[in-house]
Structures are given as C-alpha cells and as structure tokens.
Amino acid sequence: MGSVIDWLLDSDPAIRWQVMRDLLDAPEEEWAAERARVETEGWGAELLSHQDPDGQWGGGAFVPAGFTWERWQNEGQAWTSTHWALAQLREFGFDPDTDRARRTVELIGLNSKWDHDGQPFWEGEVEECINGRTVADGAYFGVDVSGIVDRLVTERLEDGGWNCERAEGSTRSSFDTTINVLEGLLEYEKATGPSPEVTEARRTGKEFLLERSLYKRLSTGEPADDLYLRLLHPNRAHYDILRALDYFREASRVTGARPDQRLHEAIEIVRSRRDADGTWPLDWTQRGEAWFQMEEVGKPSRWITLRAMRVLRWWDGS
User: Fold this and answer.
1) Taking CA 284 as the corner, what is the angle to CA 88 and CA 134, rounded to the nearest 5 degrees?
2) Are 95 and 141 contacting, i.e. CB atoms less than 8 angstroms apart?
3) What pLDDT, in 10s, does the model give residues 145-163?
4) In sequence order, what DSSP letters do the residues of 197-209 get, joined into one string?
5) Residue 186 near residue 251, CB atoms below 8 Å
C-alpha cells in the first residue's frame, strides 16, 4: 500500500491533493494547499495556458472553431473546446473561488454560444449528456444552472434514466447519458442543498444503473457494451463501471447513505483488475485531438488507481 501511495503522490497536484484527502485523510489545510497548486503547476496550468483571451478554449463551446464534420469522422471528436476544458478543470479540482476561475466563468457566459443553435453557454442546449456536464461545471464554478436542472428533471424516461437521443425518439435510457446527468445533479445538490425534485430524479437514475448491476442489459444480463468493463481516463462522455462506482461513493459521502449491496458485482470486477504491483492500468483512450495526454494505454494509470482505491476504501470500510 505504501509504495502505491508514494507512487500516486509522486505525480501531478491534481492527483496529489485527492490522494491526501481521499486516501490519507490529511487535514483540509494540507490538501487545500496542494489543491491550490493546480492553477499554477502541472496539467491544470497547462490546460489554462491554452485558454483564449475571450475565456473559451479552441474558440468554441462543444467543438473547436472551424472543426468540420469530415475531420470528426476521420480523426474522432476533438476534446479541445470550452465544454471539455471546464469538465477537466473541475476534475482536476481547480479552485472555483480564485480570481482566474471567476473571470473564466464570466467570460464564458459573455462569449461562448452552443454550436446547436447559438444558445448562451450557461443556459445549456438540447442534449441531456451535454446539459448534465454543463450543470456539473456550472454548479462547481458557482453559476446558476437551475434552469437546466429543471429541464433535466422533466426529461427522465419511463425507466428512470436519461438518453441524449430522446429528442430523436429514443424511449430507453442509456448508461452514458444517465451517468452524465447524475453527476451534474449531484454537483448541483452539493452547491445548493437537496431538493425533493432533484433528489427523486437522482434516485430513479441510480435505480436504472443498480437494476442493471451497473453494466448489464436488463433483458439478457449480458454486458450492454464491453467497453463498460474497460477502464479509461478521462471518461469525458463515456461510461464505465468505475466511473459509476465513484459517483455512488461521492453520493454516499454527501448524503451519508450506506453502499447499496447491488454494487457488489461491479466492485469485485474492479478489484479483480488490479495488477500484482497494486496499480490499475489504463485500458484504452478515446481518439481525437486533445491539448495533451496524461497517461499511456496499457501502462499503470494514476488516475484509475486513485479512483479504484478510494472506491474500494469506501466499500470495504462500510
């Protein structure tokens, strides 16, 4: 354990502060001081260095300026726009109370418009996946995103979750959309306090995942997607069981609820993926342009190891 912890600490501030908080129970003043370094060192500073003068990244909200459909098909989705940069900074733990963060939020509100129909960034657009992440980012950075939340609550499907193809007629929820919305609603409740409507929406979304053991088709019991059992980081829009487990861990931390025993199978799958040296590898990564790569496929992943260790610590300590 000690050597893995040392390996995790010998890394970027974005990882170190979370190791200190979630695995070592360090006092807040210690991990907060480490968290503050995200703005000026390592991956956080690197990502901030690519910010446009108008507050955006890549000159666009969801896709970079000038990025064509042909390039998307040939190269994959680009991850260099405002939407993805904000989500990454939130995951890094970039302090929302800093002058740089407050100015970023203000500039994005003034200058960034969604590619769909020119909607102001903090008002969201039409896809539940995008809106779920926008709620998470907005709530984290202190923006009033209640209008988007109100819409998401009413856009649940009959099976309790969400699907970003709902507007095109989809009637079944998806794992990917549901986790994006659940993370957003949880971040919103962390920022504003619980509300009956949002809490109920989170409950039905969680049930959608739990009834399927976090990865199975309800009809056959087979994996809904083999990639749900392969671990990656950053997840961006994509679902996997570790992302879901980390959501349940964080929700439990916020609400005080005990772990649901229906998570057991997913927990054991994650546990089984641990290598002999105590780390977890990066199984795959999404293609497409990014500002930088943090880890290599097939090599031990500090991000996945951090998340897996804190999930197992939560589960085993319950």
Assistant:
1) 25
2) no
3) 999 999 999 999 999 999 9
4) HHHHHHHHHHHHH
5) yes
